[in-house]
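Hi there. Long-time user, first ticket. I'm pasting a complex I've been working with (about 339 residues overall). I'd like to know whether the download I got is complete or cut off, because the file seemed smaller than I expected. Thanks.
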Amino acid sequence: MTELVPLDELNAAAPLSRLGPDPMPVGSFYTRSNFEVPTVDPEAWRLTVSGLVGDPMKLSMSELRSFGESTELVTLECAGNGRIYMDPVPDGAPWGMGAVSVAEFTGTPLARLLAAAHPADEVAEFVFTGLDRGRVEPEGDINYAFSLAAGEAASDSPMLVWAMNGEPLTPAHGAPLRLLAPGTYGMASVKWLTSITAVAEPFTGHFRMKYRYLGDPVASEGEHVGPIRVRSLITRPLEGEDVAADLEIGGAAWSGTGTIESVAVRIDDGVWMEAEIETPRGRFAPTPWSLSLRLEPGSRTIASRANDSTGNVQPLESIWNENGYANNLVHAVTVWVVD
Ligand SMILES: Nc1nc2c(c(=O)[nH]1)N[C@H]1C(S)=C(S)[C@@H](COP(=O)(O)O)O[C@H]1N2
Ligand SMILES: [Mo]
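Hi, the file is complete. Here it is re-exported in full:
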């Protein structure tokens, strides 16, 4: 039985109790699809690499896999995670805190394939196109597509993924092949990947232009949504639970702008207390944290706040923007401490 909490027919949230440090079952991993899941014939499927490259390619899955393989434990988070905590709540999928999940992904390092294609010096971005199609305003029918800057695409983190937790990718998560851009919000990790195109000008496709910060007090106006903002979540106890006075509070923290430096916990309006943090099980894996405390009986609100190695810290209040992206406010849960 799947534990996902459906938001609508295409989008479903992961249960917080399953978040890190281990991979979550694929059936618990959140799903976010803008269009219907396309039907893909895996035998006929090919990946094309074209545009401003010296050696264009059209690859079967086994040809792609000959470029190498690596496995990483990765935290994937949707830019809309936490949207409903903004005031007023912007339009868009009404995510609470369940649009983030952790799995072990296996695939071919993107940089290896791109190097073999010999991109021209003037390449500014690579455009990744999926097989899913749908109607958007004002363009009409389009395929889902997103781009990465040439430098990010050629770095050692993006992967062309065909397996999740050692099992073939499922249709909902982009079978037979998806891009995975660890450290960047989920919209860049294009599912049902069919082509990679090297271009000299910044890509202006619908989704690339939609995922921008508008009216955000922290980002510059119109800036593309990219690196995941630092966040911690409390995974134990859960919202609304009855707990004993002596308890261990714990959760996961991650950031696309650095490594997690510290996590602090606060009870009601008290002082921030430093939690213990563990070493994450990979470059893009969540950092587990915990703190054992004795709480006073009654209703208590527990909050957590993470800092990363580049000096970013979670804000105490939601940072609002027009499309409801990247709301990384401190996480709080209210529990009942039994006498
Ligand atoms: N082709 C395609 N890729 C896509 C999307 C999509 O709608 N179509 N949604 C993106 C968004 S917004 C997110 S958050 C992630 C979600 O990946 P998941 O469904 O495997 O969790 O996929 C991204 N890749
Ligand atoms: Mo997303």
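A couple of notes from our side: The longest helix spans residues 110-117. The CA atoms of residues 123 and 297 lie 61 Å apart.
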